[in-house]
Design a protein that fits this description.
Elements lengths: L1 H8 L4 H31 L5 E7 L7 E5 L2 E7 L8 E3 L2 E10 L5 E9 L4 E8 L7 E8 L8 E9 L6 E7 L11 E4 L4 E8 L2 E8 L7 E2 L3 E2 L5 E8 L8 E9 L4
């Protein structure tokens, strides 16, 4: 082995050997730069999609269809509906068209920003200001599960007749008298969340702000940790007395 190594360098000068070494280093550097450039070009041409759903919190809208970026995201939905997520291309001015199922009349034509790699809700409400009375808001939803041993809930109060509310997540065995609200004085049209609390079996209780007479008492919910959920609060249409009904959607985490 030593003889062969000696033969391979025999007849070369120190200067030529140095030049050869420099050439090898330059070639390696050029190859590394090419690989980095190729990787950057690959990343630059890839855009993560956006996950989008619809929340219909309008009291005055008829049954509707919702198109976003020309794709039918929701069909023939009504008040209190929260649809599953659909996959759309990220867009800063994504066109949104909401039409009545009967007659195919356009109720809302607008646009919104859908961020790459994010989850959003197209939130339809009644604001009473626009000529047609509708308002479309793009909500950014939590896309990762809550911390271990914790659950994160967001609350949307659209109970216009009921007004501001307090929201309790009461552990088993507790009462309103010895419980502290998770949310206090949530006004109509306001959003609270995402609020994290220790995961356990809880009962959601909603009362008028500052009072202890329940408007709504949910059946016990068993939370194991990691849940991220949205709760929509609306006036019930089944009674003339102030009362609310609740619609809950899974944003991330366990589906139990």
């Amino acid at each position: 082995m030593r003889d062969s190594m000696q033969d391979s360098t025999r007849g070369s000068t120190p200067g030529s050997r140095l030049a050869l070494a420099r050439l090898v280093v330059a070639a390696a550097a050029a190859l590394a730069a090419a690989l980095v450039l190729s990787a950057c070009q690959t990343v630059a041409t890839y855009t993560q999609p956006s996950l989008v759903r619809v929340i219909d919190a309008s009291y005055i809208a008829p049954a509707i269809d919702v198109q976003v970026e020309g794709q039918l995201l929701a069909s023939n939905i009504g008040q209190g509906t929260i649809t599953p997520y659909g996959t759309l291309t990220a867009e800063t001015t994504a066109p949104i068209v909401i039409t009545a199922v009967t007659g195919n009349v356009a109720l809302v034509t607008t646009s919104g920003t859908l961020l790459a790699g994010h989850q959003h809700s197209v939130f339809l409400t009644d604001n009473g200001a626009a000529p047609n009375g509708y308002l479309v808001t793009i909500l950014e939803d939590q896309q990762v599960q809550a911390a271990q041993g914790h659950s994160a809930f967001r609350f949307l109060n659209q109970a216009a007749k009921t007004g501001a509310v307090d929201i309790y997540m009461m552990p088993a065995g507790s009462t309103l008298a010895n419980s502290i609200p998770l949310v206090t004085n949530l006004s109509v049209g306001a959003t609270a969340g995402y609020i994290s609390f220790t995961s356990q079996t809880v009962t959601m209780v909603i009362t008028p702000a500052g009072q202890t007479t329940p408007f709504f008492a949910f059946t016990p919910i068993t939370l194991t940790g990691g849940e991220a959920r949205t709760v929509l609060i609306m006036d019930t249409q089944l009674t003339s007395n102030p009362a609310v009904e609740v619609f809950t959607a899974i944003d991330a985490g366990p589906t139990n």
